[in-house]
Fold this protein.
Amino acid sequence: GAGVSQTPSNKVTEKGKYVELRCDPISGHTALYWYRQSLGQGPEFLIYFQGTGAADDSGLPNDRFFAVRPEGSVSTLKIQRTERGDSAVYLCASSYQGTSNNEQFFGPGTRLTVL
Amino acid sequence: QQQVKQSPQSLIVQKGGIPIINCAYENTAFDYFPWYQQFPGKGPALLIAIRPDVSEKKEGRFTISFNKSAKQFSLHIMDSQPGDSATYFCAATFNTDKLIFGTGTRLQVFP
């Protein structure tokens, strides 16, 4: 079966521009997570959706970052007025809530470069 | 209190060796401790996980040792192979919530 997919795989943009990153979770997974991974670091949590609603957005660094999941499946992470410090790999993960181990399955990530 | 500290940062072993990666945590509310393996250009993939009610778990060549009183856990890779060369991350979570990751260990296994 298909895993978590993310598009685009790479995105290069200029400082100040707006970008959207897309995540398609595994079919049937109710929970969806966004993480950000800087070079040489572990993934850092950004936001978590349970269904359509954001259950925890405590990891979003500031109000330039926003994410939606309008139909409880696909999610889009939106970054306004991008800054060079936003350059990182943005990872999406999904899981089926209701299992005891909550294994999170990760996509390959979108590498964002802000020039 | 949310941090997970991981060491070493990098590790080089020969084929057949037993690399050991260590992690420590502060938050006693954590109730699930997974290890993820990540290859370049790929997302992390779950390798093995443990809950704090057991002290050891084995899956194939991978073993987690867990010391609840010391708030430490470690990954051992038996009979390591060149294909095990990757970056390994420990993590912790509670209430099946967001994962808190360590900083990663880059493992290189030479033939």
Remarks:
- The two ends of chain B are 40 Å apart (CA to CA).
- The domain at 4-110 of chain B is CATH 2.60.40.10 (Immunoglobulin-like).
- The mean pLDDT of chain B is 94.
